[in-house]
Specification:
This protein is an alpha+beta fold. It folds into three domains: 3-292, no CATH class; 301-405, no CATH class; 413-470, Arc Repressor Mutant, subunit A, CATH 1.10.10. The protein has 16 helices and 16 strands. The chain has helices at 53-65, 165-182, 222-241, 287-294, 301-312, 316-323, 326-338, 343-352, 354-358, 364-375, 381-394, 398-404, 413-426, 428-435, 442-452, 459-470, and strands spanning 3-14, 69-70, 73-74, 76-80, 90-94, 100-109, 112-125, 129-136, 139-145, 152-158, 194-204, 214-219, 249-254, 259-265, 275-276, 283-284. The strands form four sheets. It has a nine-stranded mixed beta sheet with strand order 2-6-7-10-1-11-12-13-14. A three-stranded antiparallel beta sheet has the order 5-4-15, with no helix packed on it. Helix 15 (442-452) crosses helix 16 (459-470). It is elongated and about 100 Å long. It binds adenosine-5'-diphosphate (ADP), zinc ion (ZN) and magnesium ion (MG). Adenosine-5'-diphosphate binds at residues 6-10, 157-160, 199-201, 210-211, 213, 266, 269. The site of zinc ion has 8 residues, from loops.
Length: 471
């Protein structure tokens, strides 16, 4: 029997605000333990939370960028559970009435684009962190760092529309890029600013209904999400083939062992005893506010890929790499505007130097000059690479370096003519064989000319000149 996987992803993204969602503590990552805390975010009795407007704006802009409908009224609810890093013993989240519903993201796959539904986007606060360190009474001790308590998050829940780990990976990357483009999340997966829980089930191919799902946690890179899904799909299929059945549970991905491990039976929503938070008013979002925010949505990755590809005549694949970062795409467009030759060459250069470009060490002018000189045949491809490296080393302008290093090629046909004539005159035997039909000897002549010119001749022009003179 052939099986098919069904995948739905829940992403928690930290909203890019200065302060926390319900108090004015800093939301920055990496402060000394418990530095960013106050009576509100540590849940002292008698305090009142106040909603952060910037956090709501970030979530609304995300909703707009994913074609969700922003709800005029949403409600914050208490999700009750005990955990040592959750001093209030409840997390403020949104439950029955979330901020946004019913959107979608288009993902790029080798076979074309696919639309993945977004079920909902809601806002919530993060919990703290336990650090397992040292000993207490002869046992492992744990320390609570509450800096993350009440850091603003949004949860983006997808429909179970994905069928393979690759589709899951493509969805996550696209969603990640959208959030970074919007500047609503810094996208840092290692620091936990962008985390994914992956729900996966399997079913016999062709069946309508879904199988029982497992929820996978603890993957901190795109690649790990894909690997965890691959493993889990195989595990579920083998389990069913052996006559067993999948139980609904939460499983942890162990990246070192490359396996998922059962963590706990999944809670049901009713276990959390959700109820509207009496300390917070319903969130009412006026249409005018939404329309104001709509104006701030920049060109998004999908649109950028389409425009770069059509506008510059470059392959979608290349456009996709350029658009993976707004800064890289901007750099490419600036370089392509400075030199309007073949944008494909400019795109290749930008992709090749991607990392240094993103670190801000190259200017678009450098790449434009490198591409222009290469296309005109003034410098060779090898010299072009070497020159960019020299720019990085010395910070001097690329053309000054080119002249200083004598890296220009001889492309001028008349200048090459004399060398070609000399080579032909010096090899009468080879000339005879070539004219007698040994076309392969052309590379011998090219080699001789390159030698005579001490490597400075433009090989393409040399070939043309030789063919003309010998033919
Ligand atoms: P729960 O109540 O267990 O959290 P939800 O209905 O809220 O489940 O769905 C959580 C996520 O799991 C969503 O992204 C959804 O698309 C996905 N999902 C739901 N059912 C399945 C299934 N049978 N197989 C795979 N994914 C599923
Ligand atoms: Zn606080
Ligand atoms: Mg759920």
């Amino acid at each position: 029997m052939e099986f098919e996987a069904v995948i739905g992803l829940e992403v928690h993204a930290q909203l890019l605000t200065e302060s926390k969602i319900f108090c004015s503590c800093s939301a920055k990552f990496g402060a000394p333990p418990n530095e960013n805390t106050c009576p509100v975010c540590t849940g002292m009795p008698g305090v009142l939370p106040v909603l952060n407007r910037k956090a709501v704006e970030c979530a609304i802009r995300t909703a707009l960028a994913t074609s969700c409908s922003v709800q005029r009224k949403s409600v914050f609810a208490r999700k009750n559970y005990f955990y040592p890093d959750l001093p209030k013993a409840y997390q403020i989240s949104q439950y029955e009435l979330p901020l946004a519903l019913g959107g979608h993201i288009d993902i790029e796959l080798p076979g074309g684009t696919k639309r993945i539904g977004i079920t909902r986007i809601h806002m919530e606060e993060d919990a703290g962190k336990l650090v397992h360190e040292g000993e207490f009474a002869g046992a492992q001790a744990s320390l609570a760092d509450l800096n993350r308590c009440s850091v603003p998050l949004m949860e983006i829940v997808s429909e179970p529309d994905m069928r393979t780990p690759e589709e899951g990976g493509a969805y996550l990357r696209r969603l990640h890029d959208i959030l970074v483009y919007l500047e609503v999340c810094d996208g840092n997966m290692e620091e936990g600013s962008f985390r994914c829980d992956a729900n996966v089930s399997v079913r016999p191919k062709g069946r309508e209904g879904f199988g029982t799902k497992a929820e996978l946690k603890n993957m901190n890179s795109f690649r790990n999400v894909e690997k965890a899904l691959e493993y889990e799909i195989r595990r579920q299929v083998e389990l069913i083939e052996d006559g067993g059945s999948v139980v609904q549970e939460t499983r942890l991905w162990d990246a070192n062992a490359g396996v998922t491990l059962s963590m706990r039976r999944k809670e049901e929503a009713h276990d959390y005893r959700y109820f509207p938070d009496p300390d917070l008013l319903p969130l009412l979002v006026a249409d005018e506010w939404v329309e104001e925010l709509r104006k701030t949505i920049p060109e998004l990755p999908a649109e950028k890929v389409a425009r770069l590809s059509a506008g510059y005549g470059i392959p979608r694949y290349d456009a996709g790499i350029l658009a993976s970062s707004r800064a890289l795409a901007d750099f490419f467009e600036a370089a392509a505007a400075l030199y309007r030759g073949n944008p494909k060459t400019t795109a290749n250069e930008c992709i090749h130097w991607k990392d240094v470009i993103l670190s801000g060490r190259l200017s678009p002018g450098t790449i434009a000059h490198a591409v222009e000189d290469r296309e005109s045949g003034t410098i060779s491809a090898t010299a072009s690479k070497k020159l960019v490296e020299l720019v990085l080393e010395t910070g001097k302008p690329i053309r000054a370096l080119r002249d200083e290093q004598g890296l220009t090629q001889l492309s001028d046909a008349s200048a090459l003519d004399a060398i070609v004539d000399r080579v032909i005159a010096a090899s009468p035997k080879e000339v005879e064989s070539y004219r007698g039909g040994k076309a392969g000897l052309l590379s011998y002549f090219v080699g001789q000319v390159m030698k005579e010119s001490r490597g400075k001749a433009n090989p393409k022009v040399v070939q043309e000149t030789l063919k003309r003179k010998l033919g």
